[in-house]
């Protein structure tokens, strides 16, 4: 025996006219409608009389479960689309086609039945998750275990048409390079410890900041303390985590706090966001000029540093030494830091109504830090924007 059946749970029917059957079951056969699952795309209605339970599923005329007036989708899409706890009926006419059994151990039954040659047409497994609050403002972390799940994203999500093809196209942004938190003054150490103790994050040195006080930029108008941490060095070592794309680099986390009594970006964020939180996300691109060009054409607004940034003699030399075209960088507002290896960055204007969350594009040419020079230039560009 591969599976121990405890009891029959329900019978599932797939029909094109749910209203008609629902009406008949309620009014004629005296079933009670006791549970429903209504989504934009489908209806699943559960009727009971005594212990007999019928689940009525809406069947599109094309045999495409629960998806009315849309193109048929490959089978793995259906569970997410409509038929929870069932697979779509491919049958050309209305049908009662699933007798659901309650069993003791689904996972064990599944494995044993499979060993005995049974097929599970739409089995994609399940995910388990829990959401926890972090110590940074309103930041939460959903912890998710997808090891039992074979689908591409998450149960309940429908892949869009042509999604796979789009994924195979080369994209300007390849991954999240870092996430920067705006933290309240004096809290970075506590945040670091929290991530170190709970998740094994490791401190990561930005720029000669091998002390507990982090990397301090103590220039009037900036006044920032930065610390960085990361959860895994798979990017650097070329290893990849199970479930991660091959050689997917780990994301770094930057903690930015304001030195006391400063008026700067971090304090603006804290005021307007009304809590500590994610200030910006650094998106990695292998060709920042191309990426900015494409995004600007598409309507993204980026900050530009003052034009003098590109004509300062030292900067011009750095740009040329890096093999970059100063005019192109200027045209797209791209900042370059020789740190001593090269780092190119550009920052968008805030995405929301409040002056809070923004994005950054970053291209690294050997550098793994965050350019101090760029932070100063960013500050100058923001000042110009605010003046
Ligand atoms: O330089 C970067 O990309 C950082 O992430 C560091 C940083 C943090 C906070 C700021 O307000 C500006 C820069
Ligand atoms: Fe950043």
TrEMBL record:
| Gene Ontology terms: biological process | aromatic amino acid metabolic process
Family as reported in the entry's similarity comment = Belongs to the 4HPPD family.
Record text on cofactor binding:
Binds 1 Fe cation per subunit.
Q: Which organism is it from?
A: Hippocampus comes (Tiger tail seahorse)
Its biological function?
Catalyzes the conversion of 4-hydroxyphenylpyruvic acid to homogentisic acid, one of the steps in tyrosine catabolism.
Name under which the protein is recorded:
4-hydroxyphenylpyruvate dioxygenase
Can you tell me which residues bind Fe cation? Answer: 178, 280, 360
**What does the record give as cofactor?**
Fe cation
Gene3D superfamilies according to UniProt: 2,3-Dihydroxybiphenyl 1,2-Dioxygenase, domain 1
């Amino acid at each position: 025996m591969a599976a121990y059946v405890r009891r029959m749970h329900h019978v599932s029917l797939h029909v094109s006219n749910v209203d008609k059957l629902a009406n008949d079951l309620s009014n004629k056969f005296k079933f009670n409608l006791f549970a429903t699952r209504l989504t934009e795309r489908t209806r699943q209605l559960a009727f009971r009389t005594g212990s007999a339970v019928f689940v009525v599923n809406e069947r599109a005329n094309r045999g495409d479960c629960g998806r009315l007036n849309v193109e048929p989708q490959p089978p793995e899409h259906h569970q997410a689309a409509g038929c929870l706890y069932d697979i779509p009926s491919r049958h050309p006419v209305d049908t009662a086609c699933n007798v659901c059994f309650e069993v003791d151990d689904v996972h064990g039954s599944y494995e044993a039945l499979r060993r005995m040659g049974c097929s599970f047409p739409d089995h994609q497994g399940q995910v388990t998750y829990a959401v926890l609050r972090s110590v940074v403002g309103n930041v939460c972390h959903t912890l998710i275990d997808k090891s039992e799940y074979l689908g591409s994203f998450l149960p309940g999500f429908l892949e869009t048409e042509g999604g796979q093809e789009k994924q195979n196209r080369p994209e300007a942004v390849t991954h999240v390079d870092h996430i920067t938190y705006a933290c309240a003054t004096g809290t970075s150490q506590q945040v670091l410890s929290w991530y170190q103790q709970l998740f094994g994050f490791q401190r990561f040195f930005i720029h000669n900041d091998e002390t507990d006080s982090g990397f301090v930029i103590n220039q009037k108008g900036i006044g920032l303390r930065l610390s960085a941490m990361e959860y895994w060095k798979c990017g650097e070592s070329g290893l990849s985590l199970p479930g991660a794309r091959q050689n997917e680099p780990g994301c770094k986390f930057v903690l930015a706090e304001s030195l006391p009594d400063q008026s700067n970006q971090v304090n603006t964020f804290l005021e307007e966001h009304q809590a500590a939180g994610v200030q910006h996300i650094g998106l990695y691109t292998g060709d920042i000029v191309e990426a900015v060009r494409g995004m600007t054409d598409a309507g993204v607004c980026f900050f530009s540093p003052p034009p003098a940034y590109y004509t300062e003699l030292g900067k011009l030399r750095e740009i040329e030494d890096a093999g970059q075209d100063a005019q192109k960088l200027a045209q797209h507002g791209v900042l370059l830091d020789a740190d001593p290896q090269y780092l190119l960055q550009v920052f968008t204007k805030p995405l929301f109504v409040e002056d809070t969350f923004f994005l950054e594009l970053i291209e690294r040419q050997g550098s793994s830090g965050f350019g101090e020079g760029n932070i100063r230039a960013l500050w100058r560009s923001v000042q110009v924007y605010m003046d």
